[in-house]
Amino acid sequence: MRLFILGLWCLCTAALLQAQDCLPDPGPALFMEDFGSGPNPGPALPSGTTSYIYGSINAGNYVVSNTTGLDPGFWHDGPDRTEGDTNGYMVIFNPSSSQGEGIFYQKTFSDLCPNTDYIFSSHIANLAIPTACIGIALKPRVRFDVIDTRNDATQFSEETIEVFYRSFLTWEEYGIRFRTGPDQTEARIQMVNIGGGGCGNDLAIDDISLRLCNVQIDQAFDLCDLPIGSLTVGENTYTEAGTYFDILPVPNSCNDTLITTTLMGETRVLSAELYTFCQGDTLELDNQIYTSSASIIDTLPGEFADCPRFQTLEIVAQPLQTFQQTITLCNGDSLRVGNSRYTSAGTYIDTLATPAGCDSVVFTTINTGEIAVDLEPANVEVELGQSVQLMATISRSDSYALSWQPPEAFSCDDCLDPLFQPSSSGVYQLIATDLASGCTDSKRVEVKVQACDKVFVPTAFSPNGDGLNDRLGLFVQDCFTRLISWRIFDRWGAQVFELSDILLNEDVIGWDGQVRGQLANRGVYIFQLILEQGDGTPIEVRGDVLLMR
User: What is the mean pLDDT of residues 502-506?
Assistant: First the structure.
């Protein structure tokens, strides 16, 4: 079946490509219509797609369906053509003789390429069972028309043969091959009924596509039959046995020529050999004296007398080579050139040998750059949330850039005296860069951040008015910034005191031993403290205190 379809395409467009035929591009189609999937009935086609009436299988009508079994006893019962398409739709037509050449399907394609070959195809199935219409059912025939939308003229037209009925539902692919004109970018393609109407000529269409039609060439050669033992295809040259695939664009077109090349036999083109000597000297090779560069192809005996091998001899007279380099050295750096080592500014000349033994001269210009950083203090121990002033000094550079790392721990990233507020123990540093030379120097600060956990509440107080321990006090590290809440409870769980949302840079007035203006009973009371550290972390502290009278 597939060979028959391609034969139809070749016949209908033989005059276009003459000696070379093209085949559908195996890649993704430029356009594919499978009509979707879902329950029956499927949706109508877009307006203008067909001249038939949607909604039934009566003469002159069409339906979109996921099965052909809509007329038992006359039609096959089968699925759509799209592979792996559950409940996939197809379009089913019952042409009427009164409609003449009705349009089954049409679509306008824009953005076509000029001077380009295309293939438009559709899968078609004859729905009739062999016994339908007492065995003489009309067989569908479809004409494919390619119309130039610039003047509505038909450019190409091809008719299918009769689509025969089978013992089961059978899909066959039909199509037309066409070439756009030199300035043509749009065409309308139609599938037209030429099978008439009456008993039979009932058909389904599915999987409509538009693809490039590219010339495909298979060629094979014995390497011994090639004059120089190699074959060039496009920009590629092949010298060894194997199978090669090349894609060559067709000029002024969107088509490609697809070439598969098979080469057989022994390799005749050997790897090139390189001979190098110093300019001014001579090279003797195979009794020949060379004083300058040359490229020679040497012919060598092959396995057969009429199949010689070829080897390229590349002879290179290497001239005196000179190199220039400019290097900047920073404090303590050095540069090695050959056997020489340089540490200071200046211009130096060294003569070195190339791998071929020829002289090469290296001119080296060395610039130097300096920068030095001092930083105090070098070791810091702080409580969490505390800040310390750092002081840096820069020497040996008039123009520099600073970078404190990590920057979030410093009040400024590029100043000499930032406020330093570390969040954790570790190593922090300042990097200074000399802008003129790019040289850098750095200094480190070793940091230990004390744990923020020291909270003291007296274990007892005596609110008796003697001026000593009359209030319960609270004592914390500077790393705590806010008292979120302080609650005190008696032994039965009743709250007797509460204080909340107090900044710890203010005086905290603790419990005076009274409950609603009355002296609280002596005894043990429970307290709960929630404090906020400088980084916003809340800390809870619980304990008890003895009230004495």
Answer: 83
Q: What is the pTM of this model?
A: 0.56
φ, ψ dihedrals at 12, nearest 5°: -75, -15
The confidence score (pLDDT) of residue 20 equals: 52
d(Cα 496, Cα 446) in Å, to the nearest integer?
Answer: 47
Task: Give the chain's mean pLDDT.
Answer: 90
Helix (H) / strand (E) element for 274: namely strand 269-278
Please tell me the distance from the alpha carbon of residue 377 to that of residue 447, in angstroms, as a whole number: 10
CB 95 within 8 A of CB 201: yes
pLDDT tens by residue, 182-199: 999 999 999 999 998 889
Q: Are 455 and 531 in contact (CB under 8 A)?
A: yes
Helix (H) or strand (E) holding 51: none
Longest Cα pair distance anywhere in the chain, in angstroms?
129
Residue among 63, 60, 41, 42 at smallest CA distance from 51? 60
- Distant-in-sequence, close-in-space partners of 234: CB < 8 Å, separation ≥ 6: 246, 248, 259
CB 109 within 8 A of CB 178: no
Question: Helix and strand tally (H, E) in the chain?
Answer: 2, 43
Check whether 4 has a pLDDT greater than 80: no
Helix/strand/coil for 159: strand
Give kind and range of the element (H or E) at residue 460.
strand 460-461
If one compares 138 and 423, the residue with the highest pLDDT of the two is 138
